[in-house]
Amino acid sequence: MQELHFAVPMAGAILCTFNTRHDSTMIATLLTHSETKILFVDHQFLHTALAALNLLKPPHTKPPLIVTITYEGTPPQSELNTNAYHQYESLIEGGVSGFNVVRPTDEWDPISLNYTSGTTSRPKGVVYSHRGAYLNSIATVFMHGMGARTTYLWTVPMFHCNGWCVTWGLAAIGGTNICIRRCDPKDIFDNIDLHKVTHMGGAPTVLNMIVNSPVTERKPLPHKVEIMTGGAPPPPLILSKMEELGFGVSHLYGLTETYGPGTLCLWKPEWDSLPTEERLKLKTRQGVRHLGLDSVDVKDPITMESVECDGKAMGEVMFRGNTVMSGYLKDTKATEEAFAGGWFRSGDLAVKHPDGYIEVKDRSKDIIISGGENISTVEVETVIYSHPAVLEVAVVARPDNHWGQTPCAFVKLKDGFSVDGQEIIDYCRNRMPRYMAPKTVIFEDLPRTSTGKVQKFLLREKAKALGSIS
Amino acid sequence: MQELHFAVPMAGAILCTFNTRHDSTMIATLLTHSETKILFVDHQFLHTALAALNLLKPPHTKPPLIVTITYEGTPPQSELNTNAYHQYESLIEGGVSGFNVVRPTDEWDPISLNYTSGTTSRPKGVVYSHRGAYLNSIATVFMHGMGARTTYLWTVPMFHCNGWCVTWGLAAIGGTNICIRRCDPKDIFDNIDLHKVTHMGGAPTVLNMIVNSPVTERKPLPHKVEIMTGGAPPPPLILSKMEELGFGVSHLYGLTETYGPGTLCLWKPEWDSLPTEERLKLKTRQGVRHLGLDSVDVKDPITMESVECDGKAMGEVMFRGNTVMSGYLKDTKATEEAFAGGWFRSGDLAVKHPDGYIEVKDRSKDIIISGGENISTVEVETVIYSHPAVLEVAVVARPDNHWGQTPCAFVKLKDGFSVDGQEIIDYCRNRMPRYMAPKTVIFEDLPRTSTGKVQKFLLREKAKALGSIS
Questions:
Q1: What residues have CB less than 8 Å from A55, skipping those under 6 apart?
Q2: Which of A46, A309, B343, B370 has the fewest CB neighbours in a 10 Å radius?
Q3: B102 vs chain A: nearest CA distance in angstroms?
Q4: Most distant pair of Cα atoms in chain B: their distance
Q5: Domain covering B368-466 in this structure, CATH number
């Protein structure tokens, strides 16, 4: 996939990478929607791909050409004969070394198509342009603080927001890519040690996995390893434990529609000497726009007025610039809605602090409104995360006859720990305004998307099914 | 000047910085040619500026508005009353904080006008665009390997190729600018020590000055200081001495027309372990294009064919891309000549090595043709520089009845040394093909332009005046 990030655009084609956890139904939907001409398939996913081809219906009457990619050490799915298809390595060997790169005729031409996660019936294909990708690749180098001798460990999937354009950013500085087949703590520590990794990325889930890994799977870091986290605000406790392990954590924020990270919590040297708690609190903020983006602002979604920089007034995070998507493929209506008012509307609710740094409080659909008060589920989750028995938590609204809604916490405990719901509730009441504390606590595994995001809509349905608190 | 790099473009105006060593006649010529509207003058140059205003003739009937800049600790020229003019600091104090930045309507709009050095009767005003400046600023950060905590010492004048766009590059990474009034070894070492400078630039003349400075003026470096050199190939002996002092030297190459550096001798980790002599030889090569430039090539100036990558075939260095000038102001003819064939012609003669790195052998007008053989004056100078008694050297052609031309070396010796011409000639004959060794050696100070470049045309005139060798 790393090679195809270069080969496909250089052939004048458009890169469209699929999430490897999609099932054949989803793949079939996306093949049709994207009008894929050539499908490169790792042999471990050939079964899924072939099942998808069987599901293809008109107008996608011509199925894509299949090219299989095989690796030594990873056995092909036994029942399939990969020799029946084009072989990636054979194609490469037969390539022409003097091939003329096909340049885009216009720098706004599309370079890649990225289907957002969480989509089911209506695929949302986010289009990136050559121009945006160039600027975002450069911005990636600045954001990550990468230099000429960077070795980057891929834990962020390259199919996720086009790999944040880091494939191209690394090429711009001549960095080294380390790709791994699985992303578990042992593989991460082993590869950091083996390749002297300097930089990596990872959602808070990955950070959580690292800090909660068995000591036997860890290895001492060869030097400070810079890790960029995004996708959800990193809980302070996890940040703190990552630092203890020797990682330098940077916090990025964005969406597929902003080519991945659009802001970063740009660290100021004078913050180094602050007390730990204050430092970690600053680091959970989403920060300021990166160099390649024109503007990020927090605005009233109705009046489009900027909110005050007081850390209190809430509004919607909006983006504008060359590294914001060109639009959703074949979906003018969704594109127009997303850009209503001339800015891209993120759907995230945030405040602006006096120093201009933004802090996302919640997804607009996740916010809980209880007795007329907005409750940020992120804030409640942060407190619950700090409880020593808690491994993971997600908070959603539960209907409440009196308050309208009250917080309901889904909690997964660490192995060997046992607490009851009342203890979690009491723990919260001692650390936040009473109205913000959950009234319901449910212990279970959290449902996640293939990119590791908690599927809050499933939890909201569960909370709703519990019935109203009366 | 650093502030004006931002203020002027943000006001929608075009920045045109003058060399501080120009005399009033040159200033008057440039004021007229550039149609300057506002002239910001450091009070130390007010005398020259006022004299220039007195020389202004139609069509420049309306003299520019004068704004004087005063500094504590630098007395104004006594006979002048700076209060008769607008004061820079007062204007700043009266500024509007909510000023709306005037954005260019088109990113190809001009951002700055840069008069090339060495110009006399016909000013050549090189126009830079907003787009080119953005890309070059970014490229500067990559080329210099600058990161978030960079402290840059300005020894490269900001009026020279728009300060290589480093003013903007530093802003992009949030770096620190250290500006000094004088550029002598003591000031350089003192400021590196005081401000913990991490990066700086400097022509080989500056490097020469540093390595030949009295030990009493030096201070130990607080860490490795990265210094970018360009304007002329750095002699290996000077590179070696700079490294001994603790500097990391990178070699850049370009022209005013390529926004300053267009190529860099990008260093490969595997070269670190090579023998010193080989390492320094590699470092004197001009290298490969930077990230913001589309292409650099060495071509036959007639056929426009690329020369072979054999380190031998000579051609003209040519550039193409967004960081090549838009053109010469009010000089369509010179612009068309410069871009004849679709590439910007540098006037420099070079070879391409098998690894694609270019090596400039000479300016096309500097090359010596002796008995039908091309002699690179740079190569002869490099050998003479390695003589322990030599401080500075420049080689030009002297007419020769038999050979057409033969090399003539102008040499400045270090204090306290004394050698004769024959010793220099013998020294060369032992180290290069006999035909390349100078036949004439003259000991004297070298004439330089205000940017430190040796004025070879003056030396050529002197060599010519000596008459032909018969």
A1: A24, A25, A28
A2: A309
A3: 14
A4: 74
A5: 3.30.300.30
ipTM for this model: 0.84
User: CA-to-CA distance for B230 and B349, rounded, in angstroms?
Assistant: 16
* Both tokens assigned to A199: 């930089």
Sequence-ordered strand ranges (E) for A136-242: 151-154, 176-179, 199-201, 225-229
Residue at token pair 């891309």:
B321
Report helix angle A276-283 to A236-245, nearest 10. 110
Query: Inter-chain contact A142–B173, Cβ cutoff 8 Å?
Result: yes
A236 pLDDT more than 50: yes
- CA-nearest residue to A168 within chain B is B291
- Closest chain B CA to residue A142: B173
SS3 readout for B17-33: CCCCCCCHHHHHHHHHH
* Angstroms from A358 CA to nearest CA on chain B: 19
In percent, the amount of chain A with pLDDT more than 90 equals: 72
Residues on chain B touching A138 (C-beta within 8 angstroms): 138, 291
Q: Which of A82-96, A279-293, A322-336, B123-137 has the lowest mean pLDDT?
A: A82-96
pTM of the model: 0.86
The pLDDT tens digits for B425-468 are 999 999 888 888 999 999 999 998 766 778 888 999 999 999 88
Cα–Cα distances (Å) from B99 to A309, B144, B169, B251, in that order, read: 19, 33, 23, 40
CB contact under 8 A, A148 and B145: yes
Please choose, from the candidates A358, A356, A357, the residue with its C-alpha nearest in 3D space to the C-alpha of residue A346. A358
Q: Where are the domains of chain B?
A: 4-103, 131-363, 368-466
Measured between alpha carbons, how far is B114 from B16 in angstroms, rounded to an integer?
6
Report the greatest alpha carbon distance in chain A.
74
- Cβ–Cβ gap B147/A145 under 8 Å: yes
Residues A104 and A77 sit within 8 Å (Cβ to Cβ): no
* Of B145, B174, B266, Cβ closest to residue A147: B145
Residue A20: per-residue pLDDT: 86
The phi and psi torsions of B459 (rounded to 5 degrees) equal -70, -35
B342 phi-psi bin (left φ>0, alpha ψ -120 to 50, beta other): left
Q: Which residues of A touch B226 (CB under 8 A)?
A: none
Distance CA B112, CA B109 (A): 9
* Chain centroid to CA B280: 21
- Residue B292 per-residue DSSP state: T
Distance CA A98, CA B329 (A): 39
Q: Say if residue A119's pLDDT is above 50.
A: no
Q: Is the pLDDT of residue B119 over 60?
A: no
* CATH for the stretch B131-363: 3.40.50.12780
Structure tokens at B202: 């400097």
pLDDT at A26: 85
Cβ–Cβ contacts within 10 Å for residue A249, how many? 22
**DSSP letters of A236-278?**
HHHHHHHHHHTEEEEEEEEEGGGTEEEEE-PPPGGGGGS-HHH
Smallest Cβ distance to B149: which of A172, A266, A269?
A: A269
Spatial neighbors of B110 by CB under 8 A, at least 6 apart, are: B14, B127, B128, B129, B130, B326
Say whether pLDDT at B57 is over 80: no
CA-nearest residue of chain B to A138?
Answer: B138
- Per-residue pLDDT tens for A362-372? 877 888 888 87
Q: Quick one: which H or E segment has residue A400? A: strand A390-400
Same fold yes or no, B131-363 and B368-466: no
Task: Let me know: does A19 contact A45? Beta carbons within 8 Å.
Answer: no
Residue A83 neighbours by CB distance under 10 Å = 10
Per-residue confidence (pLDDT) for residue B60, from 0 to 100: 57
